[in-house]
Amino acid sequence: LAQKYDPQKEAELRTWIESVTGKQIGPDFQKGLKDGVILCELMNKLQPNSVRKINRSAQNWHQLENLSNFIKAMVSYGMNPVDLFEANDLFESGNLTQVQVSLLALAGMAKTKGLQSGVDIGVKYSEKQQRNFDEAKMKAGQCVIGLQMGTNKCASQSGMTAYGTRRHLYDPKNQILPPMDHSTISLQMGTNKCASQVGMTAPGTRRHIYDAKMGTEKCDNSSMSLQMGSNQGANQSGQVFGLGRQIYDPKYCPQGSQGEVANAAGDQSGDPLGYHYYCEEEES
């Protein structure tokens, strides 16, 4: 905090306070303002009757009372709480940097309120400028979007070709002729130099599946390996097409001669469920 103290600002504050109050601070800036008398007179010059009682006694509590009254007067003058200092900051030299900041802010507030002095010190506070627009102006502003939504001021179609225009792909390294117009694009858009149809068959051509391990020979280029599938283990053994199929269970087919089978088939009284048994023997 001591390193932030500016001696040049101290000289400017000394000149400003002395010009406003007409009193001399003395060689020591802190000791000249310690009792709070000059500061209270300064506030009465800026805002009359802001400090009604000024103690000129040498007792410590009288001097601290003057400093407290000066701080209260700065609050009523319109100073921000963050710009104020405490009484011990000046009385005990606890934080002279904050005291300097507060006095500079007070000079800026006085300049804002129109105080004319021979010393230009402090920064003038900004003033609120409130604008009132009618309803028609407010509605017109709703149709305008700010640049936060983007802009098309820098967009153009320079160098673009019409839709459907043929584009020529070229590569300068492969000794391909350079583009003749803007419809030619570079290899960044892709190339077809490495594409071919070698080994491809016409659509609908029959392909032969073969396996080199099983002795199946390769007929032509239309044959493919077992990676595409195989029919080596498939057969049609036992399959019939268009013939009726009989479903039976050997447990219900009687075993015996043809006469016994005929008698069992003719006797329906012993079949409570109404099943008819049929058994067919192969001819020798």
TrEMBL record:
Gene Ontology BP term (one): actin filament organization
GO CC field: actin cytoskeleton; focal adhesion
Top-rank taxon: Eukaryota
MF GO annotations: actin filament binding; calmodulin binding
SMART domains: CH
One family name in Pfam for this protein: CH
Keywords: Acetylation, Actin-binding, Calmodulin-binding, Phosphoprotein, Repeat
Domain Calponin-homology (CH): 7-111
SUPFAM superfamilies: Calponin-homology domain, CH-domain (SSF47576)
InterPro entries from the UniProt entry: Calponin-like (IPR050606), Calponin/LIMCH1 (IPR001997), Calponin_repeat (IPR000557), CH_dom (IPR001715), CH_dom_sf (IPR036872), SM22_calponin (IPR003096)
UniProt function note: Thin filament-associated protein that is implicated in the regulation and modulation of smooth muscle contraction. It is capable of binding to actin, calmodulin and tropomyosin. The interaction of calponin with actin inhibits the actomyosin Mg-ATPase activity.
Family: Belongs to the calponin family.
Official protein name in the record: Calponin
Gene for this chain: Cnn2
